[in-house]
Amino acid sequence: MGKGKKDKGKKAAASAYVFTSAEVAYRPPALVKTGIVALDAMVGGGIPRGRFIELFGPYKGGKTALAYEIARAFQQAGGRGRWTDAEHAFDGYTFKRFGGDMKTLDFDDVTDTVEVYVHKTEAWTDLHAREDVPKIDVLDSIAQLATEHENETDMTKRNLDRAGQIYRGFRRLGGKLSRSGTSLLFINQVRDKVGVYFGSPETTPGGKGPEFFATMRLRVSQGTLKKGKKVRVFGAGGRQVGMHVVVRVEKNRLMPSEGITTELLYLFDTGFHPTHGVLRLLCEFGIIDERTKGSEDGKEIFVHKGVVIGDEEAFIDENPELVRSVWSKFRPENE
Fold it and tell me: What is the pTM (predicted TM-score) of this model?
């Protein structure tokens, strides 16, 4: 074949591809607000559609409860969800108390391997791909999924390919989730590496794949950001009615908020308080100030323009632009 024919062949092959300007083709991911104002603000306005989201942290930290809230938010935005209960720990009564709808939640407590989960997720995504509504797939948890090889062999033999299977599965799902606008929220646990003497020994099951694919990684744990403040919340009769939860952004591709930490209030009967933690977040961004003197019993005193903020909810209602200012300079389209 002559040089001229080769050049024509290359041009013909190139013409088969259609390239579009990024300015025309790119669309920022649509966001779904959770209704937890501090959480929405710290991640860039809400939970993105069509992306991987990871909630991880120690046990009893509030990860599953926060997943209930996010799934409820997708439903209330007119969407639907799917819950893969590999942990066999789903509580429908709690989900409904938080405002969730069991009728628009597809439930699966049979899946126990990575391969089956990937195939079912592909099928569920294809089934609802044409529905232009928010969709979320929750996996609780990635640490609980085994592999087909692990189930077929002696349990005393170590399985070295589990992380690879998870990586390959997420790689297959990424394109379909993005095109259909389906968010995949997976809960993960934490482990301690053996023999680590310098730095943090903390790691998460599933290998590095979930960390790479996740658009957003949130570390969820019990705790407070104020020294002397009690973690547990008690009601009448000394009964515990809730606890404080610390959420830290470990990764975020929507805005540069890595390392930002806020404190949420988790009430067992109703879910996460919608406005708790907003003032602390605004203080961390330097939008308002905290008064250190005169604070007693761990009580936080915040000041805006020299005036002490008394009612947190009223202040947020009267100054919504302050909350928007947390992310608006990075994502003005979300205002």
Answer: 0.88
| Residue 276 tokens, joined | 């708790």
What CA–CA distance (Å, rounded) separates 246 from 257? 15
Residue 321 lies in a domain: no
3-state DSSP call for residue 181? coil
Q: What distance lies between CA 158 and its chain's CA centroid?
A: 30
Q: What is the pLDDT of residues 261-304, one digit of tens each?
A: 999 999 999 999 999 999 988 988 888 888 766 555 557 788 88
CA distance 230 to 299: 10
Residue 159 lies in a domain: yes
Maximum pairwise Cα distance, the chain: 91
Q: Radius of gyration (Cα) for the chain, nearest Å?
A: 23
> Is 233 within 8 Å of 240 (Cβ atoms)?
yes
Q: Nearest-5° angle of CA 151, CA 155, CA 156?
A: 155
Determine contact, residues 257/293, Cβ cutoff 8 Å: no
What does the pLDDT look like over 37-51, one tens digit per residue? Answer: 999 999 999 999 999
- How far is the C-alpha of 141 from the C-alpha of 119, rounded, in Å? 17
- Asked if residue 174 is part of any domain, the answer here is yes
Assign residue 118 the CATH number of its domain.
3.40.50.300
